Amino acid sequence: MTAAKRNPLIEAEPGPAESDRNWTARLRRRITRTVPPGQWLPDRQPVYVRSWIYVFGVATLAALLVVLGSGVVLSVGGSAWWHTSAVGHFVNSVHLWSVELFFAFMVIHLWGKFFMAAWRGNRALTWITGAVCFVGSIGTAFTGYLSQSNFDSQWISTQAKDGLNAAGVGAYFNVLNPARMLLWHIVLLPLFVGVLVIAHLLLVRRHGVVPPFDATPPGDAGRASIASDGSPPAVEVVAVAESIIISAQITTDPDDREVER
Question: What are the Cα distances from residue 63, in Å, to 55, 86, 103, 106, 141?
């Protein structure tokens, strides 16, 4: 019997040079270096993970999803939809109370991690991204109050104007412009918060949760730097940023558009 012929276009493995020009291979290697295999969705965790402080962290993410979902529905109906529709008023109430729960859960989680010194074990960036995300969420909520299109938003905007002018940023952040504030509320600030949330989750999956003061998980004490692949601490910011940006990157190398023969 004659052996079946192998198809070199299908079965041939790319060499090192070809793999370097392949953006999917580069993305796969970057993801593997950022979060090692088995740490994305682990099925086993240390016993100290069974804590209410992490329940509030997950509750914060759940509330954020409700905020985003109800906000999308409100954006479809329009900024004044909830004034004239019972359904719109209900969706607006869901959006409001999910924001309230989001901040309540996040403050509890944030203060709990503060008293646990969550930056221990080279987890400083994990703590920083969470704290900056909280600050960005305050700005997002503030612009939401300015987008109510009622007398309440008018009063808030006029009072905020004086404070921002006194701080010297009123010319760059005009709270009396409702269209600009609406765009800040539904596009720019949610994008900023979303990127920080993704970076925060990547860092949590990369380094794991911080252990209690009297417990050290295996391998945690032996880490000499933030990056688990041995790179210096400054590379950590680049690693997380590249993992987010490179997924949308389209290579401009003409050799990548050709089928390897």
Answer: 12, 23, 9, 10, 14
